[in-house]
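Students often ask why we bother encoding 3D structure as a string. The short answer is that it lets us treat folding as translation between two languages. Here is a chain of 627 residues written in the first language.
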Amino acid sequence: MRTRRHGGRRRGHASALLGTTLLGAAASLWSPRASADEGEAPLLVVLDETGESRDGRPVLTRHPAPEAATSVLTRGLAGALVRAYAMEQEYLRRAEQRAPEPAYILLSSRQGGFAREGFWLDDEDKPEAGYVDLHRDWPLTGKFGSVDQLFPHELTHVIRRQLAGELQDGGTNQVHALGVRTDRVVAFNEGFAEAVQALAVDHPDAAPSTAALAGDQARVERVERQLAAYRRELTARVALATRMRLGFLIWYSDAEDVLRYHAVKANAFARAPAIPERLLTADPYAAYLLESVLPGRPEDPLKSRSRMLASEGVISALMLRWLADEELGASRRGADFYARFGVTADQVTPLENALLKLFHALHEHKPRDLVALVDGYRALFPDEAPRVDALLRDVLGAPRGDAPPELWLANRAFKTGTTVFDQHRALPRVHTFDLNGASLVDLVGVPGVDIALARSIRAHAPYASLDELDRVPGLTGDQRDALRGLASELAALRAELEDEGEDAISIGVIITPFVWRALAALALAGALGTLITHLTRPQPRPPRATSRAGQLLRAAAVGFAAAFLGVFVGWAQPLAGAGSLLAVLVLAATPAAVWAGRRAGDIRYGLRVGLVWLLAALPAAALVSPW
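And here it is in the second language, the structure alphabet:
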């Protein structure tokens, strides 16, 4: 039951930067540009599509104009990682007799960033060669999530796969995102790559426009406002057609890119955002979205160790500190260690030194998650164990220790969307969770489990097995059997997914409920606006004879015009209903009042006409406002 990655770019309280320690460490990350000496094979090759395939693999060609991409990707963090990739290729040549390859990037027509394997080039089959596939129109620099950050992210996936093998099944069926609790395997894979992505902004040789992102406080404040508004809408008692929910597909991708830097550096995803108790019982899915999208604040409690190990935002925070740590970067190994990579100790920078040691641990121990990586690293480099433990304490709140076992359950009574972008569950999924990493949301979604019992279950975790649920006070036999039954449901769910295979996520299906909700909001606001206009429309003096059909048409013209203006303005700005009414007042009610008053020669009549426009806009204002 492997987790599917959502199409498009694998996309708070975003706080201040880590401080002088990490910033000082970043100054030591510079490495020479990743370019080959004259006459040597290049370290980076830019590819283009041909539209053809052979033996199930794409036929690619060298890009006719690679200069723009190579000038960006052979400097900064990308350039350092390309150099480290060449060392990793030499390591694999010696360890596995694998033919070395340069780092490849394909500038393609496909939306989404991907780490891929296998292609044809110059009539040569390269079935095991890794490459990064990014969209050709994405900005190269100067934006959170630009190519100079996403290329290192995806190249890290290529490296991890080459050294440690394909991902094992981790248990979850949630599609990953920065704040989503998935499982330890997915979180480790994505968190490691996201750490490299964040590090690209801080690299001393980063493109100036990318380096400037670190100090762009306006972006941070905008995302904080967006997340605060999203929280208000999720926790409101009524929120029918609010802007952050209906506009989620538009704003969240960019917001998550900002969080991948600022919130990760603040380790904000190690803390659980506060969820109103009312929401847990009234709308567990809204509570799930809240805890899956929002980072925690400094005053929020730390998540459990198991939940942190399954949260890529937390793993990213740890690996970012690891790669930027001065002590680990400066700790050198013997000459034989560097000879495996075809270099000497004095030829590698602190960042490359940290990477090479992680590469060795990945290859030797094939870790599936962070716990296995730390155990393997400590075994290989025991003298560095105290510093690694200090990093674990800094991020996870405790030094190393055996992680509780994963006890995966499947709750068919609770469905989530296929991704956090699937806000309205157009593609529903059975909710799976690890009992030892469960949140209150996971547990209250189980039939028969209330908030008090959910707290008791969490308080007595971790559990070595489901049999230990016997020690939870207040848990009845039926409730215990129901929880145990969720393990059987997981096994059945795995079998179903094996039979069905993995379906690609349909963006069109996910978009459909957003469109229908928007249209329904417009139609309802227009119909109610028409009714209000018909009931409150003033009569001019002297009255003009108008048929009933004509009266209804005029009422509909006013009602739907006020509704469309009110709804669209409400979605376009953060004032919601107040902004809607203000826009209708300025753009429609006032001009209509002036025109009607002059035409009738009666100012009071004109004022009444203007008031009707405002009254007709009230349904639109109510629909776009959280209550």
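Translate back mentally: Confidence is low (pLDDT under 50) at residues 1-34, 499-503. Keep this in mind for the problem set.
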